[in-house]
From TrEMBL:
<dbReference type="InterPro" id="IPR022162">
    <property type="entry name" value="TRPC4AP"/>
</dbReference>
<dbReference type="GO" id="GO:0019902">
    <property type="term" value="F:phosphatase binding"/>
</dbReference>
<dbReference type="GO" id="GO:0006511">
    <property type="term" value="P:ubiquitin-dependent protein catabolic process"/>
</dbReference>
<dbReference type="GO" id="GO:0031464">
    <property type="term" value="C:Cul4A-RING E3 ubiquitin ligase complex"/>
</dbReference>
<protein>
    <submittedName>
        <fullName>Transient receptor potential cation channel subfamily C member 4 associated protein</fullName>
    </submittedName>
</protein>
<feature type="region of interest" description="Disordered">
    <location>
        <begin position="293"/>
        <end position="313"/>
    </location>
</feature>
<dbReference type="Pfam" id="PF12463">
    <property type="entry name" value="DUF3689"/>
</dbReference>
Length: 738
């Protein structure tokens, strides 16, 4: 039985779903109720569609019916998008709601054609729950991929798949897609770029965007459950096994605007996109901007457009081509970035070096990646020109993230330089009478950047010109810092110091008094890598911070958030220890004059930092972002152990606890933190290598120091328990306890 309920005024309140497919209702009844409920004939059309959608039916009748239904849903979908995606309500979108309620989504199944895709998409974006229901049908999702071989329906299919995968509870396995390698090889470059939007969902770990927000306890527990590779990692490996895949992505990422598709095919594609509302609004707005520019400069021609002989009416303006290319490169760079951070990182590095991704991006830097904005720069619907979501800004951020992933702890980072700059690194090493870095000597000069400046130097130039309020400052600092990470290289540091990087950072921290926590953290981290063990850097620091007032502002910035500045504190501590053990006259002079080194040489200051570093973190709140505070506190104590002062530091911590009138609260917490440290680091080779390289302290010494501190022997002068009175002892609490 089918129950239809109407409220006041004939409004439809509830209908059992699958009406059309599961019951026979007379045409007269449907027509009668249609007038009262204002269904616009949709139930009757669906009944006819169901009758003609069985095997051996006349599918031309289906298409005719679909063409009647499609406009009814398209109007609502357009309203939904243009109203900034306000919460969908049944009363707001009655047509799509009625279509779904009478089983329209279920009627449309394997015999998909263009109009079916359009209807499904419009229903998905307007009616809550439809997308999730489709996502639960794994066979249907995989079937959609087979439709991507049809160029006429590629964009519609890709958009629908992207929406479905975005809500799917379990990530699909790319290996399950029929003939994946053949499918990808059949794509042209534009299709491949759009396919990257789908791939982004299949190769990214869940919640990657908020990685720092998850506690390490939760992550470790999850890793114990998932002993094998994740589905995202399996999908990454699948992509790398597709012949020519990485090479094509590199070509897409580095091709110039003049190499893109001609006018006719792109305008045809634009027409296709018009029915896909998320993207059509962007491209439609862009076309209006482009047409205005074309009218203003109709007599001009562009060397790169290749379209000078076409009329203004059909000519694709250069601004349109640039924005079109930017939106493609966004997707490609994201996929490359994810692959660079995956398990097959070295394999990806080798391939993108071979296919000259970095030199290609260097050649695009001025004209596309960091191009000057025009007065009529495109902005996305519902956003403004300075919004981080605009294509121009998003491309820059994605580019900087790629550089960060590419440079981080990898010898291929020197591909960011050109041959002259590599020679400069060698000259710096020779002048300082130190060995050249092996990676510099072994760099294949045929794969490095060409032109007057390498990519790193170009980045430094725009970094120094960036406005104080710019959202790029954080990402720029992160990208440059990644070049310095790993084993400290004096030549790398001097290369950047000679280009005024230290003075620029200090200006931003002190003179502009930066307020952004994220930007400040990135500057402190970069400053730490730039100055570590480098006496010339400390001399330059003292020359810039040349008054007590400036130095106090600098200290205030450090002390305002130790989570943000602790890596710099670690750098200063390590550097001071090394300088104090050197007998060089230049070092002695800087030691006596540098405000920063003199400040850190005071025992009271080191103890103050140690006390606060331990106090601001707890096992339950440790994240990838703040675990560095634990390691910085360990560095301070390891250096104390070297000088046989570890008992003095522990005793001082005990005294500071009593001063705060809370005996045991610091040392109990530190004991728990060190127990977690053992669990977290002793099974992670990469993490231990990073600790060793960044501190120049062997990981064996790290482990020994932690073991000594955690000794249960209350008679040991280096054991934490020796400094906690039994009445306040609380060291055996399980990590899972709140």
């Amino acid at each position: 039985f089918i129950y239809l309920f109407w409220g006041e005024g004939g409004k439809l309140e509830k209908v059992c779903t699958n009406v059309v497919a599961n019951a026979k209702i007379t045409e007269a009844l449907l027509k009668e109720r249609d007038k009262q409920a204002k269904w616009n004939g949709i139930p009757l059309l669906l009944q006819k569609l169901y009758e003609h959608s069985h095997p051996n039916s006349d599918f031309s009748q289906c298409q005719s019916i679909l063409k009647e239904i499609s406009p009814l849903l398209s109007m609502e979908a357009m309203a939904f998008v243009t109203e900034d995606r306000k919460a969908a309500q049944e009363s707001t979108f009655p047509n799509t709601y009625t279509f779904d309620l009478f089983g329209g989504v279920d009627v449309i199944s394997d015999d998909l054609i263009k109009d079916c895709l359009s209807i499904l998409y419009n229903t998905c974006i307007c009616t809550e729950g439809v997308t999730r229901r489709l996502a639960e049908r794994n066979d249907f999702v995989l079937f959609l991929f087979t439709l991507m071989t049809n160029k006429k329906t590629f964009l519609q299919t890709a958009t629908l798949i992207e929406d479905i995968l975005g809500v799917k509870k379990e990530m699909i396995q790319l290996d399950d897609i029929p003939n994946l390698a053949s499918l990808v090889s059949s794509f042209d470059q534009q299709q491949l770029a759009n396919f990257c939007r789908i791939l982004a969902v299949t190769i990214s770990e869940l919640d990657t965007g908020s990685d720092d927000k998850h506690t390490l306890l939760a992550k470790n527990a999850q890793q114990k459950k998932n002993l094998g590779p994740s589905r995202a990692e399996i999908n990454q490996a699948t992509l790398l096994n597709i012949p020519g895949f990485i090479e094509r992505l590199c070509k897409l990422a580095t091709r110039k605007v003049s190499e893109t598709t001609g006018t006719s095919s792109f305008l045809q594609e634009l027409e296709e996109w018009y029915t896909w509302l998320d993207n059509a609004l962007v491209l439609d707005a862009l076309m209006r901007v482009a047409n205005e520019e074309a009218e203003q400069s109709s007599t001009e021609s562009s060397d790169e457009s290749g379209l000078a002989n076409t009329s203004t009416r059909t000519q694709l303006p250069q601004s349109m081509k640039i924005m079109h290319e930017i939106m493609y490169k966004l997707e490609v760079l994201y996929v490359l970035c994810v692959l660079l951070m995956g398990r097959q990182r070295n394999q990806v590095h080798k391939m993108i070096a071979e296919f000259k991704l970095i030199p290609g991006l260097n050649n695009l830097f001025d004209k596309l990646i960091w191009r000057k904005h025009s007065a009529s720069a495109l902005v996305l619907h519902g956003h403004n020109q300075n919004c981080d979501c605009s294509p121009d800004i998003t491309l820059k951020i994605q580019f900087l993230r790629l550089l960060q992933s590419f440079s981080d702890h990898h010898e291929n980072k020197y591909l960011l330089l050109n041959s002259q700059e590599l020679n400069e690194l060698s000259a710096i090493s020779h002048k300082a009478n130190i060995p050249e870095v092996d990676a510099v000597v072994n760099t294949d000069r045929s794969l490095v950047c060409d032109g007057k400046r390498g990519l790193l130097t170009r980045l430094l130039q725009v970094m120094k010109k960036e406005p104080a309020e710019s959202s790029f400052r954080f990402w720029q600092a992160r990208a440059v810092e990644s070049f310095l990470r790993g084993t400290t290289s004096y030549a790398d540091q001097m290369f950047l110091l000679k280009r005024g990087l230290l003075e620029h950072i200090l200006y931003c921290i002190v003179d502009s008094e930066c307020k952004s926590r994220d930007v400040l953290q990135s500057y402190f981290d970069l400053l730490g890598e730039l100055m570590k063990f480098n006496i010339d850097a400390f001399k330059r620091f003292n020359k810039y911070i040349n008054t007590d007032e400036k130095f106090q502002v600098f200290l205030n910035q450090i002390n305002s958030s130790l989570v943000d500045s602790n890596m710099l504190v670690r750098c200063i501590t390590l550097s001071l220890d090394r300088f104090e053990n050197q007998s060089d006259a230049k070092v002695a002079e800087v030691l006596s004059e540098c405000r920063l080194l003199s400040y850190m040489s005071q025992m009271s200051m080191r103890m103050s930092f140690l006390f606060r570093l331990i106090n601001i973190i707890h096992v339950q709140t440790l994240t990838q972002e703040n675990v560095s505070c634990l390691n910085t506190s360990l560095v301070i104590l390891m250096l104390a152990r070297r000088k046989e002062k570890l008992p003095f530091y522990l005793r001082t911590l005990q005294q500071m606890e009593y001063t705060e009138k809370y005996p045991g609260f610091i040392l109990n917490n530190f004991h728990s933190l060190l127990r977690f440290w053992q669990q977290h680091y002793l099974n992670k080779d990469k993490d231990s290598t990073c600790l060793e390289n960044s501190s120049c302290i062997s990981f064996t010494y790290w482990k020994e120091t932690v073991s000594i501190l955690l000794s249960p022997d209350r008679t040991s002068p280096c054991a934490i328990v020796s400094y906690i009175d039994e009445a306040y002892m609380d060291i055996d609490r399980d990590f899972s306890e709140e």
